[in-house]
Design goal:
- This protein is an alpha/beta fold.
- It has 11 helices and 20 strands.
- The chain has helices at residues 39-44, 62-71, 83-86, 96-107, 125-128, 132-149, 184-195, 213-228, 249-257, 275-287, 323-333, and strands at residues 49-54, 74-77, 111-119, 156-161, 200-205, 234-237, 240-242, 262-271, 292-297, 357-358, 369-378, 381-390, 395-396, 398-403, 409-414, 417-419, 424-428, 435-436, 441-449, 456-461.
- Strands 1-2-3-4-5-6-8-9 form an 8-stranded parallel β-barrel, surrounded by 5 helices. Strands 10-11-12-19-15 form a 5-stranded antiparallel β-sheet, with no helix packed on it.
- Helix 6 packs parallel to helix 7 and helix 10 packs parallel to helix 11 (323-333).
- It is globular.
- The structure holds ligand G2I.
- Ligand G2I binds next to loops.
Length: 462
């Protein structure tokens, strides 16, 4: 990997943002044979997204914007939500570039992956010069402020980016962030959850494409976080590749998924003559892992790529589809479709309104446990946090049934597995949270569309 040796000069095009009048054309592009004809529509058939990293300075380029609007259902700002862009001076926040991209996404029905709240690169100069408790305070304030500004509007945040070392140590990378104390990552995740409970919270890194020392270090961190209740929902695999992914690419995604987190391919680009096959292999691996939520390519056209001269993307410099595009489309179309009742059109909540309202009272339950639900709702969606409490004996497995009002539907969940998404939904513990000591509690949660006001829950030992 050449992560740090590249210096790209990306002249920001100082063009005024032209409000786009392009309509929402996602997920409806399906040919007579039933195969979808765009990346976003093909991915949506199996409940997944297909995204691209986008630069605000290119939103005036019509070729670029046409491809973006036609093909993609998720956007990651390439640089605009990073620390140097959003807090150029301590305590002075600038959301202009990030907001432009968010508005582009919202106005065309796409969702946004926020990238990245804390990263040792692209720290503003003032933060680069800080250390210790002063820096820790500035870091946490940054997380809180930025996640609060975008509250309710972000599908998933890369809360922490690239904190693990390359090579065989499996340990953390040295940085001024790391030197504030090893708990900086969990502190950041907790601050992000408190600021925006609806966003999925991801850890994101590169050189994690197979089972290796670095990916295993991250795996151990995620496992530890899940066992201690540190809020983490997803792991991002950047996947900056040259040629085929390693043979254990899918197995590596699967072992993370088995920890109860979503996995996402977050910055895919592939150099080399085997590019089309390699793109197909990565896509097949994602669609073979139930919890692989989607794929994002790091740019749109080869000329937009940070890997100058390597032509690692799906569209050439003129915006034409490459062979790699067809490999990806075919692999997405071959995926097992999901229940067609699952909503495929992403909705971005715009006005988070109601604060957390604890709803159902704890139901005493003769079967050894009780469950209570608290809701964080906004217009059109909600996050439910369910607390499962053991009675006078320890639990060795539990099952919670929630009754959702009509119109409400579960779209994603963490720390429990469910059957069904509407009406009466049954939730079972996952491997790491079935055992609950007498009188103690564990939590799981889910996100949904519609209103869950009036939800009820019951618990049973299993
Ligand atoms: O390095 C590739 C990616 C690795 N993972 C994290 C990503 O955030 C990272 O993205 C790249 C962007 O694609 C580049 O566009 O991050 C680079 C920074 O390390 C970005 O490059 C920078 C240039 O180095 C700056 O000179 C430039 O001012 O982009 C800036 C904004 O255009």
């Amino acid at each position: 990997m050449k992560m740090t040796s590249r210096s790209l000069s990306r002249a920001a095009l100082a063009s005024a943002f032209l409000a786009t009048t392009l309509g929402v054309s996602l997920v409806l592009a399906t040919s007579a044979t039933g195969a979808a004809s765009t990346l976003g529509a093909a991915a949506a058939q199996s409940g997944r997204y297909f995204g691209a990293a986008v630069a605000a300075g290119k939103l005036g380029d019509s070729t670029y914007v046409n491809i973006l609007n036609r093909e993609f259902t998720m956007i990651t700002p390439e640089n605009e939500m990073k620390w140097d862009a959003t807090e150029p001076n301590r305590g002075q926040f600038n959301y202009s570039g990030g907001d432009r991209i968010l508005n582009q996404a919202v106005s065309t029905g796409k969702r946004v992956r926020g990238h990245a709240l804390l990263w040792y690169q692209q720290e503003p100069g003032w933060a680069q010069r800080m250390e210790g408790s002063d820096l820790r305070q500035a870091m946490m304030n940054h997380v809180t402020q930025v996640a609060t500004h975008y509250k309710g509007k972000i599908y998933a945040w890369d809360v922490v980016n690239e904190a693990f070392a390359d090579g065989g140590s499996g340990g953390r990378r040295d940085s001024n962030l790391q030197r504030t104390g090893n708990d900086w990552i969990e502190a950041a995740f907790r601050a992000a959850r408190a600021a925006d409970p609806a966003a999925k919270l991801c850890y994101n890194d590169y050189n994690t494409d197979g089972v290796n020392a670095k990916s295993t270090g991250i795996y151990n961190m995620v496992k530890d976080f899940k066992s201690r209740g540190v809020p983490i929902d997803c792991v991002g695999f950047q996947s900056h590749l040259s040629g085929n992914p390693p043979g254990d690419y899918q197995a590596n995604l699967q072992r993370f998924a088995d920890l109860g987190v979503e996995v996402q391919i977050t910055e895919l680009d592939i150099a080399g003559s085997n590019q089309a096959n390699a793109y197909g292999a990565v896509t097949r691996a994602c669609v073979a892992v139930a919890r692989c939520a989607g794929i994002t390519t790091w740019g749109i056209r080869d000329t937009d790529s940070w890997r100058t001269g390597e032509n690692p993307l799906l569209f050439d410099g003129n915006g034409n589809k490459k062979a790699a595009y067809n490999s990806v489309l075919d692999a997405l179309n071959a995926a097992t479709p999901t229940n067609p009742t699952t909503p495929t059109t992403p909705t971005t909540p715009t006005t988070p309104t109601t604060p957390t309202t604890p709803t159902t009272p704890t139901t005493p339950n003769p079967s050894g446990c009780s469950a209570s639900v608290s809701l964080n709702s906004w217009n059109g969606g909600f996050v439910a946090t369910v607390k499962v409490t053991a009675g006078s004996s320890a639990l060795n497995g539990w099952r919670v049934t929630t009754n959702l009002p009509s119109g409400a539907a579960v779209t994603s969940s963490w720390s429990a597995s469910n059957s069904g998404t509407t009406g009466s939904v049954t939730w079972s513990n996952v491997s790491y949270n079935g055992t609950v000591a007498a009188g103690q509690s564990t939590e799981f949660g889910f996100q949904g569309t519609g209103s869950a006001e009036g939800i009820t829950s019951t618990c049973a030992a299993s």
